[in-house]
Task: structure prediction
Amino acid sequence: QVQLVESGGGSVQPGGSLRLSCEFSGGTFLNYGMGWFRQSPGKERVFVAAISWRGGDAEYADSVNGRFTIAKDNSGNMVYLQMNALKPDDTAVYYCAADSTKHYTPSNYVETRVNEYDYWGQGTPVTVSS
Result:
């Protein structure tokens, strides 16, 4: 059974940086595209960033494009989200998710739809406040 464990959340002032990590276990990591999503109190879980199973292609939400970077380490079974120039609006619980690929999934395909992800971590909170 695939398990995902996030870490790296915390409190930071506006303009600061954090790096979230997600450790994957229980499956073949190369068979999964990975994504980061976030959820604020009273709101739906929304897409933040995602990366292809090979790790060479990524997509970002408009709200984080240019500030956040997703990376996938296929040898270490890890996915990261580097978050720079953080804003109060970035405050949320951040979730790591895994999307199982099919034999026909192109190596550059990036899944951004929350309902297409198969496995989820428990979430790590991020608070951006002065």
Summary: The longest strand covers residues 92-100. The radius of gyration is 14 Å. DSSP finds no helices and eleven strands in the chain.
